[in-house]
Amino acid sequence: MKYIFFTLFIFAAVSAEKKSYDGYKVYEVTPRNEAAVNRLQYIRDNGLGEFWDDYLAVNLALRINVPPENINNFLRVLKSSDIQSQELISDIQSAIDQQMKPVSSRSSVSYLSYSWSEYHNLDRIYTWLDELQENHPDVVKTVDKGTSVLGNSIKGVIINYHPERSEKVIGIIEGTLHAREWISTATVTWIIKEFLTSTDPAIRALAENLEWHIFPVVNPDGYNYTFTHNRMWRKNRSPASFTSCPDNDDNSNGVDLNRNFDFYWMTVGATSNPCSNLFAGPSPFSEPEARAIRDYTLRVNQEGRLIYYLAFHSWGQMFVIPYSHVTPEQSLLSGNFPNMFEISIRAADALKERYGTEYTAGLSANVLYPMSGTSFDWVKNVTNVPVSLLLELRDRGTYGFLLPPNQIIPTALETMDAMIEMDRMTRALG
Ligand code: ARG
Ligand code: ZN
């Protein structure tokens, strides 16, 4: 009897329940002065809501996820300081449930065991990558970039149509460094599919003229966790600097992998607080996922053939150009900033043509928020790759991380348009 109780207890302790977001709402709030910023700081420090944007500044819109028990209090604090708010999502759990429903198969596209009518978990993605190698043995090779905290492999594919051309340039695509940004995963898998099956000459050229190294999920533990425990998880599942954090249901606080790289580490837009979504980790490259990206990128670039490093995130609709800790006035621009800016502007124009979706392009400090320790900045600095970009895919906050599955294919199509134009411009600029 005692023994049974003990096992039950252990079981309950390790299999924490999936977090429910019933009654949670997302509000958009824009502080118009320093006092309002302080007030929002207060709201955050007192845990009244989880900030979907972690950077607080005057005139910068914030989305805040507020649990039902705090809504009255939250609105009262805003009102007492005369801060306007707007309800963006009236019930997060129903938005989450909605997002899990596949679109009708009539309007869907699939290839082998995979489809773009819904979001898929890690197992499904990795199984598909193996199928690709089986079905395209001369072109596709699966590859492990490294191993995550929990022992998952960071699996990707190398797509190489002309192994005999040893001078070919290389593109690396990084998806899902942030766990909850599912549209980045879906878009990266779409790019793989297009490179292997499209008959569009522009896509064929892009696929075949380069050697591609594509990793749909570089944060596999975090991505798994968004399916099994908490849809809104962003970081990896590192037990680093364990502290008891309000919203954590087990012994892992996680590290923001896009703050863990050794380039201006922990200088801006990052924190040493393990409970924060912007926790930079105990030291630069403390996390195996970040080290895997570092080591793999350096190895692939040994002959200096890297031409693209593209990191896919969501949301915001932006092309973010290195470096992210600086402002233009500080003039520490990456060497070919003007080229990358021009390439991004043109790519944004091409993207807009299909459905009218508007993207902005610029330094993170201008289009998003200053940040430090990111992968694409680190890669730019250490390899001097001609084009290193972070793309924030759809949308601009209507659904945020919970982009409905009927937007997967439109997002993927317009993103591919942008990539084609990016490549055309990159070659034109030399
Ligand atoms: N993917 C973003 C990041 O790297 C989060 C974007 C959400 N916030 C926003 N303002 N677009 O932090
Ligand atoms: Zn992100």
UniProtKB/TrEMBL annotation:
Presence of keyword tRNA processing: no
InterPro entries: M14A-like_propep, M14A_act_pep, Peptidase_M14
Active-site residues, Swiss-Prot/TrEMBL: 392
GO biological process, one term: proteolysis
Keywords recorded for this protein, A-Z: Carboxypeptidase, Disulfide bond, Hydrolase, Membrane, Metal-binding, Metalloprotease, Protease, Secreted, Signal, Transmembrane, Transmembrane helix, Zinc
Molecular function terms, GO-annotated: metallocarboxypeptidase activity; zinc ion binding
GO cellular component labels: extracellular space
Coarse class of the protein's main subcellular location: secreted
Annotated signal sequence range: 1-16
Compartments in which it is found: Secreted
Cofactor(s) demanded: Zn(2+)
Positions of the Peptidase M14 domain: 118-426
Summary of the function given for this chain in its UniProt record: Involved in the digestion of the blood meal.
Family: Belongs to the peptidase M14 family.
Annotated protein name in UniProt: Peptidase M14 domain-containing protein
Native organism: Arctia plantaginis (Wood tiger moth)
